[in-house]
From TrEMBL:
Enzymatic reactions: tRNA(Glu) + L-glutamate + ATP = L-glutamyl-tRNA(Glu) + AMP + diphosphate
Originating organism: Paracoccus seriniphilus
Gene symbol of the encoding locus: gltX
UniProt key word 4Fe-4S: no
GO BP annotation list: glutamyl-tRNA aminoacylation
InterPro entries reported for this sequence: aa-tRNA-synth_I_cd-bd, aa-tRNA-synth_I_codon-bd_sub2, aa-tRNA-synth_I_CS, aa_tRNA-synth_I_cd-bd_sf, Glu-tRNA-ligase_bac/mito, Glu/Gln-tRNA-synth, Glu/Gln-tRNA-synth_Ib_cat-dom, GluQ/Sye
UniProt xrefs under CDD domains: GluRS_core
Annotated protein name in UniProt: Glutamate--tRNA ligase
Length: 465
């Protein structure tokens, strides 16, 4: 391929359901390859199956790609909309002698296959000179001898004996083009230079190459990537848990983490496990894709997610949290909640592996007075502990609101009462958050600020009498 040829990749899903995690990875690989080389990434909706294609599924695919952060060039292309062009190419092949009219009926084909169970169908009309006035399909006149070689950027040379391939139908007897023809015509007309897709398409590729050759079109570079398996090494299915991209979004993995994790599913760059988009675009190449199936590993995904939650820019993290709330139909953050949550982010980043975990840890910043005390936390708020909180509140009135000074004030009150810091941290945690599992009490006080922290403490100390 010339150095001046612009790279063009495409993602071509069928709109018959949700966007599978394997499809999302295929889209990502195509996106990375194009974007890393100043090329184009196109989106084609393969909606020729009118009975199964739905607008809802198309919308779900677009929404999934948008959530994942993959942008495409131009408008999404509808395969069905190009059916006249597909028909035109079939007619061209017919006129050039690279295709022929087949009048075999479904019953005749079924009978032939029953009599020849291990052979591809051989139409009696391939070399017929006289043809009846009856419905016909247009079939490719495929080579019968030799082999078709797929020069694959991942799999190497894949050889398929031509006598194992039948003369596939290009145009059905009702005049509709087949998927196999449509894919080739679309890829050619869209200028696709690299076809990166799952290795379950390898047999299709052998057939499609024959169309390229019959039309005298340049073949694109093919790269067939191994499929994704579950942790048990078996083909990924619902029994393994989440398999749709929307399910991973609902579980609260941020898009940046999903891009990082999916990129490493079947592709590697040395020992690098954690990287950002810029590095992925720079590093990604086809020779880094392995031949063995990748395995979905939720522990690795959590590790990657944790890393990105720690390192994401504050604005991106806040946007991811707000998008998660919106996508899961939860109330939007108020201006005050947002302000407090931003203050709490440094503490919340440390332990959270997902966005909902971060929101759960940050619940103290999202709740309003009076704080609802959970039964387990309420046990820490007896008369003695409320008395200590009252003493602490008096000391804090004059403290500068830094984490170190807040901790020093708590230690001082604990010493005055002859107890360890833990004895005051429990009731302090209950008063501030109403729970037993929270970030550090001093991180919470720093995030809440002087006025809100003291107000929450006073709510409890007033009960001390």
């Amino acid at each position: 391929m010339s150095e001046n040829t612009q790279i063009v990749t495409r993602f071509a899903p069928s709109p018959t359901g949700y966007l599978h995690i394997g499809g999302a990875r295929t889209a990502l690989f195509n996106w990375l390859y194009a974007r890393g080389r100043g090329g184009k990434f196109l989106l084609r909706i393969e909606d020729t199956d009118r009975a199964r294609s739905t607008p809802e599924a198309t919308a779900a695919i677009l929404q999934g790609l948008t959530w994942l952060g993959l942008d495409w060039d131009g408008e999404p292309f509808s395969q069905f909309a190009a059916k006249d062009r597909h028909t035109e190419v079939a007619q061209e092949m017919l006129e050039a002698g690279n295709a022929y009219k087949c009048y075999s009926t479904p019953e005749e084909i079924a009978a032939w296959r029953e009599a020849n169970p291990r052979q591809p169908f051989q139409s009696p009309w391939r070399d017929a000179r006289e043809t009846p006035d009856a419905p016909f399909a247009i079939r490719l006149k495929a080579p019968r001898e030799g082999e078709t070689i797929i020069s694959d950027a991942v799999q190497g040379d894949v050889r398929v004996a031509n006598d194992q391939l039948d003369d596939m139908i290009l145009l059905r007897s009702d005049g509709t083009p087949t998927y196999m023809l449509a894919v080739v015509v679309d890829d050619h007309d869209m200028g696709v230079t690299h076809v990166i897709r799952g290795d379950d398409h390898l047999t299709n590729t052998a057939r499609q190459i024959q169309i390229y050759d019959a039309m005298g079109w340049k073949r694109p570079v093919f790269a067939h990537i191994p499929l994704i398996h579950g942790e048990d090494g078996k083909k990924l299915s619902k029994r393994h848990g989440a398999v749709g991209l929307h399910e991973f979004a609902q579980l609260g993995y941020p898009p940046a983490a999903m891009r990082n994790y999916l990129a490493r599913l079947g592709w590697s760059h040395g020992d690098d496990e954690l990287f950002d988009d810029a590095q992925a675009r720079e590093w990604f190449d086809l020779d880094g894709i392995g031949k063995a199936p990748a395995r979905l590993d939720f522990k690795k995904l959590e590790h990657v997610s944790s890393h990105h939650l720690k390192t994401m820019p504050e604005a991106d993290l806040l946007a991811a949290l707000e998008n998660f709330l919106s996508d899961t139909d939860q109330p939007a953050l108020t201006a005050q909640q947002k302000e407090r949550l931003v203050s709490a982010l440094p503490a919340l980043r440390e332990k959270a592996k997902t966005l909902p975990q971060m929101l759960d840890q940050g619940r103290f910043a999202l709740t309003s007075r009076p704080i609802e005390i959970e039964p387990k936390a309420a046990k820490a708020l007896d008369t003695v502990s409320r008395g200590m909180l009252k003493s602490l509140t008096a000391v804090l009135q004059h403290a500068s609101w830094t984490r170190d000074e807040l901790e020093q004030a708590a230690k001082q009150v604990a010493e005055e009462n002859g107890v360890g810091l833990g004895k005051i941290a429990g009731p302090l945690r209950a008063a501030l958050a109403g729970r037993t599992a929270t970030p550090s009490v001093f991180d919470m006080m720093t995030a809440l600020g002087r006025e809100e922290s003291l107000a929450r403490l006073q709510d409890q100390t007033e009960l001390a009498g």
